[in-house]
Amino acid sequence: MRRGLSRHNNRSAGGVAFSPLSLFADGSQGVWYDDSLTSSMYQDSAGTVAAVLESPVGKQLDLSGNNNHRTQATSANRPTLSARYNLLTKTEQFDNAAWIKPNLTITANATTDPLGGNTADKLAENSTVSLEHYLVQIQTVVAAQHTFSVYLKAAERTWASVYLSTGSINSTWFNLAADGSGGVGTVGTGCTATSTYVGNGWYQCSVTRTTTAAAWQFVINPALGNGSSVIYVGTVGYGIYAWGADVRPANQATGLIPTYQRVDTSSVYDTVGFPQYIKYNGLDQSLSTVSINFTATAQMSVFSGLRKLSDAAAGYAIELSVNSTSNSGAFYLSAPNSAAANFGAGSGGTTFVSGASASSFAAPTTQTAQILANISAPSLNLYLNNTSVLSSTSTQGTGNYGNYAMYFGRRAGASSPFNGLEFQTIIVGKTLTATEIANTETYVNSKTKAY
Amino acid sequence: MSDFTQATVIIKAADQAAAQADMGDTVFIVGASADGLAPATNYVTSGPWSNAEMDQMANDVTWAKKMYFGTDWQAALAANNLQVITEPLV
Questions:
Q1: What is the pTM of this model?
Q2: Closest Cα of chain B to A215: distance in Å?
Q3: What residue of A is the nearest CA neighbor of B29?
Q4: I want to staple B53 with a disulfide (CB 3.0 to 4.6 A). Which of A298, A305, A426, B49 is the partner?
Q5: How close does chain B come to A1, measured CA to CA in Å?
Protein backbone atom coordinates (compact mmCIF):
# COMPACT_ATOMS: atom_id res chain seq x y z
CA MET A 1 0.00 0.00 0.00
CA ARG A 2 1.40 3.37 -0.98
CA ARG A 3 -0.45 6.19 0.65
CA GLY A 4 -0.02 9.77 1.64
CA LEU A 5 3.12 10.07 -0.40
CA SER A 6 2.85 13.77 -0.89
CA ARG A 7 3.52 14.21 2.82
CA HIS A 8 6.77 12.33 2.57
CA ASN A 9 8.63 14.35 0.06
CA ASN A 10 11.63 16.16 1.39
CA ARG A 11 14.14 18.22 -0.46
CA SER A 12 17.46 16.48 -0.79
CA ALA A 13 20.73 18.33 -0.53
CA GLY A 14 20.61 18.89 -4.27
CA GLY A 15 17.16 20.40 -4.09
CA VAL A 16 15.43 17.40 -5.66
CA ALA A 17 12.42 16.02 -3.84
CA PHE A 18 13.33 12.87 -1.94
CA SER A 19 10.97 10.17 -0.78
CA PRO A 20 12.13 7.03 1.04
CA LEU A 21 9.85 5.18 -1.35
CA SER A 22 12.52 5.67 -4.02
CA LEU A 23 14.79 3.30 -2.06
CA PHE A 24 12.39 0.48 -2.82
CA ALA A 25 11.63 1.34 -6.44
CA ASP A 26 13.91 -1.45 -7.69
CA GLY A 27 11.94 -4.02 -5.71
CA SER A 28 14.29 -4.11 -2.75
CA GLN A 29 13.00 -5.86 0.32
CA GLY A 30 12.54 -3.81 3.48
CA VAL A 31 10.24 -1.69 5.59
CA TRP A 32 9.33 1.96 6.07
CA TYR A 33 7.38 2.96 9.15
CA ASP A 34 6.47 6.62 9.37
CA ASP A 35 5.30 7.36 12.92
CA SER A 36 4.28 10.87 11.84
CA LEU A 37 1.58 9.47 9.55
CA THR A 38 -1.34 8.75 11.87
CA SER A 39 -3.43 7.30 9.06
CA SER A 40 -0.93 4.44 8.70
CA MET A 41 -1.65 3.20 12.22
CA TYR A 42 -4.48 1.40 13.97
CA GLN A 43 -5.35 0.73 17.59
CA ASP A 44 -6.06 -2.94 16.95
CA SER A 45 -4.00 -5.58 15.19
CA ALA A 46 -6.75 -6.19 12.65
CA GLY A 47 -6.48 -2.63 11.40
CA THR A 48 -10.11 -1.65 11.96
CA VAL A 49 -9.87 1.15 14.55
CA ALA A 50 -7.85 4.18 13.48
CA ALA A 51 -5.09 5.25 15.83
CA VAL A 52 -5.29 8.63 17.52
CA LEU A 53 -2.93 10.50 19.81
CA GLU A 54 -2.38 8.67 23.09
CA SER A 55 -3.98 5.49 21.75
CA PRO A 56 -2.34 2.09 21.50
CA VAL A 57 -0.76 1.05 18.21
CA GLY A 58 -1.84 -2.49 17.31
CA LYS A 59 -0.95 -2.26 13.62
CA GLN A 60 1.26 -0.01 11.54
CA LEU A 61 1.37 -0.16 7.77
CA ASP A 62 4.65 -0.58 5.96
CA LEU A 63 4.91 2.26 3.43
CA SER A 64 7.74 0.67 1.44
CA GLY A 65 5.34 -1.16 -0.83
CA ASN A 66 6.47 -4.53 0.52
CA ASN A 67 3.45 -5.02 2.78
CA ASN A 68 5.64 -5.83 5.78
CA HIS A 69 3.12 -4.37 8.20
CA ARG A 70 3.88 -4.73 11.89
CA THR A 71 1.36 -5.67 14.54
CA GLN A 72 0.83 -6.54 18.19
CA ALA A 73 -2.03 -8.95 18.86
CA THR A 74 -1.96 -8.59 22.65
CA SER A 75 -3.76 -5.43 23.78
CA ALA A 76 -1.63 -4.79 26.85
CA ASN A 77 1.60 -5.16 24.87
CA ARG A 78 0.82 -2.38 22.41
CA PRO A 79 2.96 0.76 22.41
CA THR A 80 1.41 4.23 22.44
CA LEU A 81 1.18 6.89 19.73
CA SER A 82 2.02 10.33 21.05
CA ALA A 83 3.37 13.78 20.26
CA ARG A 84 3.43 15.02 23.85
CA TYR A 85 6.47 16.96 25.02
CA ASN A 86 5.16 19.41 27.62
CA LEU A 87 4.55 17.59 30.91
CA LEU A 88 2.15 20.23 32.23
CA THR A 89 -1.58 20.45 31.52
CA LYS A 90 -3.92 23.46 31.19
CA THR A 91 -0.90 25.45 30.11
CA GLU A 92 -2.88 28.56 29.25
CA GLN A 93 -5.56 28.22 31.93
CA PHE A 94 -4.00 29.17 35.24
CA ASP A 95 -7.45 29.51 36.81
CA ASN A 96 -7.99 25.77 36.25
CA ALA A 97 -7.82 23.32 39.16
CA ALA A 98 -4.71 21.78 37.59
CA TRP A 99 -2.93 24.78 39.09
CA ILE A 100 -2.77 25.56 42.80
CA LYS A 101 -2.64 29.28 43.53
CA PRO A 102 -2.17 30.13 47.22
CA ASN A 103 -2.60 33.83 47.95
CA LEU A 104 -3.19 34.70 44.32
CA THR A 105 -6.33 35.63 42.43
CA ILE A 106 -6.27 34.49 38.82
CA THR A 107 -8.12 36.61 36.29
CA ALA A 108 -8.58 34.52 33.16
CA ASN A 109 -8.05 36.06 29.72
CA ALA A 110 -6.97 39.37 31.22
CA THR A 111 -4.80 40.68 28.42
CA THR A 112 -3.39 40.05 24.96
CA ASP A 113 -1.18 36.95 24.88
CA PRO A 114 2.11 36.64 22.97
CA LEU A 115 0.29 35.24 19.93
CA GLY A 116 -2.14 38.16 19.80
CA GLY A 117 -5.06 36.28 21.27
CA ASN A 118 -6.72 37.07 24.56
CA THR A 119 -5.80 34.04 26.65
CA ALA A 120 -3.19 35.52 28.99
CA ASP A 121 -4.12 35.47 32.65
CA LYS A 122 -3.32 37.86 35.47
CA LEU A 123 -1.74 36.57 38.67
CA ALA A 124 -2.63 39.10 41.38
CA GLU A 125 -1.79 39.15 45.07
CA ASN A 126 -4.90 38.79 47.22
CA SER A 127 -3.47 39.06 50.72
CA THR A 128 -1.85 41.79 52.77
CA VAL A 129 -0.21 39.27 55.06
CA SER A 130 3.44 38.36 54.58
CA LEU A 131 3.10 35.20 52.49
CA GLU A 132 4.37 33.61 49.33
CA HIS A 133 1.99 34.45 46.49
CA TYR A 134 2.44 31.59 44.09
CA LEU A 135 1.07 29.60 41.22
CA VAL A 136 2.14 25.95 41.11
CA GLN A 137 1.52 22.75 39.21
CA ILE A 138 2.95 19.47 40.45
CA GLN A 139 4.12 16.78 38.04
CA THR A 140 6.16 13.63 38.46
CA VAL A 141 9.35 13.74 36.43
CA VAL A 142 12.29 11.43 35.84
CA ALA A 143 15.84 12.09 36.98
CA ALA A 144 17.19 14.41 34.28
CA GLN A 145 17.74 18.05 33.52
CA HIS A 146 14.38 19.72 33.01
CA THR A 147 13.50 23.13 31.65
CA PHE A 148 10.53 25.04 33.04
CA SER A 149 9.46 27.97 30.89
CA VAL A 150 6.60 30.44 31.02
CA TYR A 151 5.73 33.64 29.20
CA LEU A 152 5.54 36.56 31.64
CA LYS A 153 4.66 40.24 31.33
CA ALA A 154 4.76 43.06 33.85
CA ALA A 155 1.57 44.46 35.33
CA GLU A 156 1.89 46.28 38.66
CA ARG A 157 4.86 44.06 39.51
CA THR A 158 7.79 44.28 37.12
CA TRP A 159 9.76 41.33 38.48
CA ALA A 160 8.87 37.65 38.70
CA SER A 161 10.31 34.53 40.25
CA VAL A 162 10.28 31.08 38.64
CA TYR A 163 11.51 27.86 40.19
CA LEU A 164 11.44 24.06 40.16
CA SER A 165 11.35 22.49 43.59
CA THR A 166 10.51 19.48 45.69
CA GLY A 167 9.71 21.74 48.63
CA SER A 168 12.04 24.64 49.30
CA ILE A 169 12.01 27.96 47.49
CA ASN A 170 14.84 28.32 44.97
CA SER A 171 13.93 31.39 42.93
CA THR A 172 15.37 32.65 39.72
CA TRP A 173 14.34 36.26 39.23
CA PHE A 174 13.32 37.86 35.93
CA ASN A 175 13.11 41.55 35.07
CA LEU A 176 9.93 42.12 33.03
CA ALA A 177 10.65 45.68 31.91
CA ALA A 178 7.94 46.66 29.45
CA ASP A 179 10.35 48.08 26.88
CA GLY A 180 12.12 44.77 26.33
CA SER A 181 15.21 45.76 28.27
CA GLY A 182 14.59 43.17 31.00
CA GLY A 183 16.26 39.82 31.43
CA VAL A 184 17.51 37.30 33.92
CA GLY A 185 18.31 38.49 37.43
CA THR A 186 19.75 36.33 40.19
CA VAL A 187 19.72 32.67 39.26
CA GLY A 188 18.66 29.96 41.67
CA THR A 189 21.14 27.50 43.15
CA GLY A 190 22.01 24.76 40.69
CA CYS A 191 20.03 26.38 37.90
CA THR A 192 20.62 28.05 34.57
CA ALA A 193 18.19 30.55 33.11
CA THR A 194 17.33 32.44 29.96
CA SER A 195 14.97 35.27 29.15
CA THR A 196 13.82 35.94 25.59
CA TYR A 197 11.87 39.07 24.75
CA VAL A 198 9.10 38.21 22.28
CA GLY A 199 7.43 41.63 21.98
CA ASN A 200 4.53 43.56 23.46
CA GLY A 201 6.10 43.34 26.92
CA TRP A 202 6.26 39.54 26.94
CA TYR A 203 9.31 37.47 27.88
CA GLN A 204 9.71 33.72 27.68
CA CYS A 205 11.42 33.01 31.00
CA SER A 206 13.16 29.63 31.35
CA VAL A 207 14.86 27.89 34.23
CA THR A 208 16.76 24.62 33.87
CA ARG A 209 17.65 22.36 36.75
CA THR A 210 18.52 18.71 37.34
CA THR A 211 15.57 16.94 38.88
CA THR A 212 15.32 13.72 40.79
CA ALA A 213 12.69 11.12 39.93
CA ALA A 214 9.90 12.51 42.08
CA ALA A 215 6.91 14.83 42.15
CA TRP A 216 8.25 18.32 41.51
CA GLN A 217 6.59 21.71 41.94
CA PHE A 218 6.74 24.20 39.07
CA VAL A 219 6.24 27.61 40.61
CA ILE A 220 5.65 31.18 39.38
CA ASN A 221 5.60 34.25 41.67
CA PRO A 222 5.14 37.96 41.26
CA ALA A 223 8.20 39.55 42.85
CA LEU A 224 9.17 42.89 44.36
CA GLY A 225 12.61 43.02 42.76
CA ASN A 226 15.75 41.11 41.95
CA GLY A 227 16.71 38.79 44.79
CA SER A 228 13.82 39.99 46.91
CA SER A 229 12.15 37.30 49.02
CA VAL A 230 9.00 35.95 47.46
CA ILE A 231 7.47 35.95 50.94
CA TYR A 232 6.24 39.51 51.33
CA VAL A 233 3.28 41.69 52.29
CA GLY A 234 1.13 41.77 49.20
CA THR A 235 -1.01 44.51 47.73
CA VAL A 236 -4.40 43.27 46.64
CA GLY A 237 -4.67 43.39 42.87
CA TYR A 238 -0.94 43.80 42.22
CA GLY A 239 0.66 41.17 40.04
CA ILE A 240 1.94 40.01 36.66
CA TYR A 241 0.54 38.47 33.49
CA ALA A 242 1.34 34.89 32.53
CA TRP A 243 0.76 32.57 29.61
CA GLY A 244 2.10 29.39 28.10
CA ALA A 245 3.86 27.27 30.74
CA ASP A 246 5.99 24.33 29.67
CA VAL A 247 8.11 21.65 31.38
CA ARG A 248 10.20 19.13 29.45
CA PRO A 249 13.59 17.46 29.51
CA ALA A 250 16.19 20.13 28.87
CA ASN A 251 17.58 18.45 25.78
CA GLN A 252 14.18 18.82 24.15
CA ALA A 253 14.15 22.54 24.89
CA THR A 254 17.00 23.53 22.62
CA GLY A 255 14.89 25.01 19.84
CA LEU A 256 14.92 22.04 17.44
CA ILE A 257 11.26 21.72 18.26
CA PRO A 258 9.07 24.61 19.45
CA THR A 259 9.93 25.60 23.00
CA TYR A 260 6.30 25.85 24.00
CA GLN A 261 3.57 23.21 23.48
CA ARG A 262 0.03 24.12 24.42
CA VAL A 263 -1.48 21.28 26.43
CA ASP A 264 -5.11 21.16 27.45
CA THR A 265 -5.41 17.58 28.68
CA SER A 266 -3.14 14.56 28.46
CA SER A 267 -4.62 13.69 25.08
CA VAL A 268 -5.44 17.16 23.70
CA TYR A 269 -2.43 19.27 22.78
CA ASP A 270 -0.73 21.12 19.97
CA THR A 271 0.99 18.88 17.44
CA VAL A 272 2.26 21.21 14.72
CA GLY A 273 6.05 21.21 14.83
CA PHE A 274 6.22 18.41 17.38
CA PRO A 275 7.52 15.12 15.94
CA GLN A 276 5.05 12.32 16.51
CA TYR A 277 6.36 9.07 17.95
CA ILE A 278 5.55 5.57 19.11
CA LYS A 279 6.45 5.06 22.75
CA TYR A 280 7.63 1.66 24.01
CA ASN A 281 7.32 1.40 27.79
CA GLY A 282 10.51 -0.56 28.45
CA LEU A 283 8.62 -3.39 30.07
CA ASP A 284 6.48 -5.46 27.76
CA GLN A 285 5.52 -3.53 24.63
CA SER A 286 6.57 -4.42 21.10
CA LEU A 287 5.52 -4.79 17.47
CA SER A 288 6.53 -7.42 14.95
CA THR A 289 6.16 -8.36 11.31
CA VAL A 290 5.56 -11.65 9.63
CA SER A 291 8.66 -13.16 8.04
CA ILE A 292 10.51 -10.83 5.70
CA ASN A 293 12.49 -12.55 3.00
CA PHE A 294 15.95 -11.01 2.88
CA THR A 295 17.56 -14.18 1.46
CA ALA A 296 18.50 -12.42 -1.77
CA THR A 297 20.80 -9.92 -0.07
CA ALA A 298 23.92 -9.80 2.08
CA GLN A 299 23.69 -6.03 2.57
CA MET A 300 21.50 -4.13 5.01
CA SER A 301 20.86 -0.42 5.57
CA VAL A 302 18.95 0.56 8.70
CA PHE A 303 17.81 4.07 9.67
CA SER A 304 15.82 4.76 12.82
CA GLY A 305 15.06 7.94 14.71
CA LEU A 306 14.98 7.06 18.39
CA ARG A 307 14.85 8.65 21.81
CA LYS A 308 16.32 6.43 24.49
CA LEU A 309 14.71 7.02 27.88
CA SER A 310 16.64 4.62 30.09
CA ASP A 311 20.09 3.11 30.41
CA ALA A 312 19.08 0.73 33.20
CA ALA A 313 19.10 -2.42 31.10
CA ALA A 314 19.84 -3.53 27.55
CA GLY A 315 16.98 -3.17 25.10
CA TYR A 316 16.37 -4.17 21.52
CA ALA A 317 14.89 -1.39 19.41
CA ILE A 318 15.00 -3.53 16.24
CA GLU A 319 15.95 -7.16 15.70
CA LEU A 320 15.65 -9.46 12.71
CA SER A 321 14.65 -12.95 13.92
CA VAL A 322 13.89 -14.06 17.47
CA ASN A 323 17.59 -14.03 18.32
CA SER A 324 20.01 -12.44 15.90
CA THR A 325 22.98 -13.82 17.82
CA SER A 326 22.03 -17.43 17.27
CA ASN A 327 20.26 -17.19 13.90
CA SER A 328 22.40 -16.83 10.78
CA GLY A 329 21.64 -13.84 8.59
CA ALA A 330 20.24 -11.43 11.15
CA PHE A 331 20.94 -8.06 12.74
CA TYR A 332 19.95 -5.87 15.68
CA LEU A 333 19.95 -2.27 16.88
CA SER A 334 20.06 -1.87 20.65
CA ALA A 335 19.43 1.11 22.91
CA PRO A 336 21.22 0.66 25.18
CA ASN A 337 23.47 -2.29 24.39
CA SER A 338 24.08 -2.99 28.09
CA ALA A 339 23.31 -1.28 31.36
CA ALA A 340 25.33 1.68 30.16
CA ALA A 341 24.98 4.98 28.31
CA ASN A 342 25.44 3.44 24.88
CA PHE A 343 23.83 2.16 21.71
CA GLY A 344 24.78 -1.04 19.94
CA ALA A 345 24.48 -2.99 16.74
CA GLY A 346 25.08 -6.46 15.45
CA SER A 347 25.00 -8.27 12.13
CA GLY A 348 26.09 -11.59 10.78
CA GLY A 349 25.82 -14.42 8.34
CA THR A 350 27.21 -17.63 9.79
CA THR A 351 29.32 -15.55 12.19
CA PHE A 352 27.80 -12.79 14.27
CA VAL A 353 29.58 -9.50 14.94
CA SER A 354 28.31 -6.97 17.44
CA GLY A 355 29.50 -4.00 19.42
CA ALA A 356 28.57 -0.87 21.24
CA SER A 357 29.25 2.83 21.01
CA ALA A 358 31.20 4.61 23.68
CA SER A 359 29.24 5.15 26.88
CA SER A 360 28.71 8.82 26.15
CA PHE A 361 25.08 8.70 25.10
CA ALA A 362 23.25 8.90 28.40
CA ALA A 363 19.50 8.68 28.44
CA PRO A 364 17.41 10.61 27.77
CA THR A 365 18.90 11.24 24.38
CA THR A 366 17.48 11.58 20.88
CA GLN A 367 19.54 10.11 18.04
CA THR A 368 19.21 9.09 14.44
CA ALA A 369 20.72 5.61 14.39
CA GLN A 370 22.11 4.27 11.15
CA ILE A 371 23.45 0.76 10.58
CA LEU A 372 25.25 -0.05 7.35
CA ALA A 373 26.11 -3.75 7.28
CA ASN A 374 27.49 -6.17 4.76
CA ILE A 375 28.02 -9.89 5.30
CA SER A 376 29.91 -10.71 2.09
CA ALA A 377 32.38 -7.81 2.19
CA PRO A 378 32.31 -7.77 5.96
CA SER A 379 31.49 -4.50 7.60
CA LEU A 380 29.33 -3.29 10.45
CA ASN A 381 29.01 0.46 10.91
CA LEU A 382 26.83 2.26 13.41
CA TYR A 383 26.28 6.00 13.18
CA LEU A 384 24.49 8.18 15.71
CA ASN A 385 23.37 11.58 14.48
CA ASN A 386 25.43 10.92 11.35
CA THR A 387 28.64 10.37 13.32
CA SER A 388 30.44 7.03 13.31
CA VAL A 389 30.37 5.37 16.73
CA LEU A 390 31.11 1.76 15.81
CA SER A 391 32.99 0.27 12.88
CA SER A 392 34.04 -3.32 12.35
CA THR A 393 35.38 -5.30 9.41
CA SER A 394 35.47 -8.59 11.28
CA THR A 395 34.20 -11.54 9.30
CA GLN A 396 30.49 -12.15 9.41
CA GLY A 397 30.86 -15.59 7.90
CA THR A 398 28.95 -16.49 4.78
CA GLY A 399 25.44 -16.40 3.41
CA ASN A 400 22.77 -13.78 3.09
CA TYR A 401 20.28 -12.32 5.53
CA GLY A 402 17.45 -14.66 6.42
CA ASN A 403 13.71 -14.99 6.11
CA TYR A 404 12.62 -13.98 9.58
CA ALA A 405 10.08 -11.92 11.44
CA MET A 406 11.35 -8.52 12.54
CA TYR A 407 10.79 -7.33 16.11
CA PHE A 408 10.56 -3.79 17.39
CA GLY A 409 10.74 -2.90 21.09
CA ARG A 410 11.66 -6.33 22.51
CA ARG A 411 13.64 -9.42 21.58
CA ALA A 412 11.17 -11.87 20.06
CA GLY A 413 8.41 -9.79 21.62
CA ALA A 414 9.37 -11.31 24.96
CA SER A 415 12.54 -9.95 26.56
CA SER A 416 15.11 -7.12 26.72
CA PRO A 417 12.59 -4.30 26.21
CA PHE A 418 13.49 -0.95 24.67
CA ASN A 419 12.44 1.97 26.85
CA GLY A 420 12.02 4.88 24.49
CA LEU A 421 10.45 6.55 21.51
CA GLU A 422 10.62 5.73 17.81
CA PHE A 423 9.98 8.48 15.29
CA GLN A 424 10.78 6.79 11.99
CA THR A 425 12.29 3.54 10.76
CA ILE A 426 13.50 2.70 7.27
CA ILE A 427 15.25 -0.61 6.54
CA VAL A 428 16.41 -1.59 3.06
CA GLY A 429 18.05 -4.86 2.12
CA LYS A 430 20.82 -3.44 -0.01
CA THR A 431 23.79 -1.10 -0.03
CA LEU A 432 22.75 2.49 -0.64
CA THR A 433 24.64 5.12 -2.56
CA ALA A 434 26.23 7.96 -0.63
CA THR A 435 23.51 10.26 -1.92
CA GLU A 436 20.78 7.85 -0.83
CA ILE A 437 22.34 7.54 2.62
CA ALA A 438 22.57 11.31 2.99
CA ASN A 439 19.01 11.85 1.80
CA THR A 440 17.62 9.12 4.03
CA GLU A 441 19.52 10.40 7.04
CA THR A 442 18.21 13.91 6.38
CA TYR A 443 14.71 12.58 5.99
CA VAL A 444 14.80 10.56 9.21
CA ASN A 445 16.21 13.50 11.11
CA SER A 446 13.46 15.74 9.72
CA LYS A 447 11.01 13.40 11.45
CA THR A 448 13.08 13.05 14.59
CA LYS A 449 14.61 16.50 15.16
CA ALA A 450 17.61 14.90 16.80
CA TYR A 451 20.08 17.49 15.56
CA MET B 1 -15.24 5.71 22.70
CA SER B 2 -11.88 4.17 23.31
CA ASP B 3 -11.66 0.50 24.16
CA PHE B 4 -8.66 0.47 26.45
CA THR B 5 -7.47 1.38 29.90
CA GLN B 6 -3.82 1.92 30.71
CA ALA B 7 -2.99 -0.16 33.76
CA THR B 8 -0.22 -2.16 35.41
CA VAL B 9 -1.26 -5.55 36.75
CA ILE B 10 0.97 -7.50 39.14
CA ILE B 11 0.36 -11.13 40.06
CA LYS B 12 2.13 -13.72 42.18
CA ALA B 13 4.46 -16.11 40.39
CA ALA B 14 2.39 -19.03 41.64
CA ASP B 15 -0.60 -17.65 39.77
CA GLN B 16 1.15 -17.20 36.42
CA ALA B 17 -0.27 -20.32 34.83
CA ALA B 18 -3.80 -19.55 35.92
CA ALA B 19 -3.54 -15.93 34.86
CA GLN B 20 -2.16 -16.86 31.45
CA ALA B 21 -4.89 -19.45 31.05
CA ASP B 22 -7.41 -16.65 31.45
CA MET B 23 -5.65 -13.74 29.74
CA GLY B 24 -3.34 -15.43 27.22
CA ASP B 25 0.26 -16.53 27.35
CA THR B 26 1.63 -13.28 25.93
CA VAL B 27 0.97 -11.42 29.17
CA PHE B 28 2.53 -11.86 32.61
CA ILE B 29 5.84 -12.94 31.12
CA VAL B 30 7.96 -10.20 32.72
CA GLY B 31 9.28 -11.44 36.04
CA ALA B 32 9.96 -9.31 39.10
CA SER B 33 11.46 -9.81 42.51
CA ALA B 34 12.58 -7.72 45.47
CA ASP B 35 16.21 -7.63 44.35
CA GLY B 36 15.68 -7.79 40.60
CA LEU B 37 17.23 -11.24 40.44
CA ALA B 38 15.73 -14.58 39.51
CA PRO B 39 13.67 -16.42 40.55
CA ALA B 40 10.62 -14.29 39.91
CA THR B 41 8.27 -13.88 42.82
CA ASN B 42 5.79 -11.94 40.72
CA TYR B 43 4.89 -11.25 37.11
CA VAL B 44 3.79 -7.92 35.68
CA THR B 45 2.12 -6.57 32.56
CA SER B 46 1.60 -2.88 31.87
CA GLY B 47 -0.21 -1.33 28.96
CA PRO B 48 -3.53 -0.64 27.26
CA TRP B 49 -5.80 -3.46 28.37
CA SER B 50 -9.05 -3.81 26.45
CA ASN B 51 -12.25 -3.03 28.31
CA ALA B 52 -13.24 -6.71 28.07
CA GLU B 53 -9.96 -7.72 29.67
CA MET B 54 -10.43 -5.19 32.46
CA ASP B 55 -13.97 -6.44 33.04
CA GLN B 56 -12.70 -10.00 33.17
CA MET B 57 -9.92 -9.24 35.63
CA ALA B 58 -12.19 -7.15 37.81
CA ASN B 59 -15.07 -9.59 37.95
CA ASP B 60 -14.30 -13.10 36.81
CA VAL B 61 -10.78 -14.29 37.58
CA THR B 62 -9.89 -16.19 40.72
CA TRP B 63 -6.19 -15.32 41.00
CA ALA B 64 -5.01 -12.45 43.16
CA LYS B 65 -3.75 -9.30 41.46
CA LYS B 66 -2.90 -5.70 42.10
CA MET B 67 -4.03 -3.18 39.49
CA TYR B 68 -2.61 0.32 39.13
CA PHE B 69 -4.19 2.66 36.60
CA GLY B 70 -1.99 4.74 34.35
CA THR B 71 1.28 4.00 32.57
CA ASP B 72 3.74 4.30 35.45
CA TRP B 73 4.75 0.67 35.92
CA GLN B 74 7.91 1.68 37.75
CA ALA B 75 5.84 3.29 40.51
CA ALA B 76 3.54 0.29 40.66
CA LEU B 77 6.46 -2.06 41.15
CA ALA B 78 8.14 0.25 43.65
CA ALA B 79 4.94 0.37 45.68
CA ASN B 80 5.27 -3.40 46.03
CA ASN B 81 9.01 -3.36 46.67
CA LEU B 82 9.63 -5.12 43.36
CA GLN B 83 12.15 -4.72 40.56
CA VAL B 84 12.02 -6.13 37.05
CA ILE B 85 14.37 -9.04 36.47
CA THR B 86 16.56 -7.90 33.59
CA GLU B 87 19.01 -9.75 31.43
CA PRO B 88 22.05 -8.75 29.38
CA LEU B 89 22.06 -8.90 25.60
CA VAL B 90 23.53 -12.18 24.40
A1: 0.93
A2: 12
A3: A414
A4: B49
A5: 26
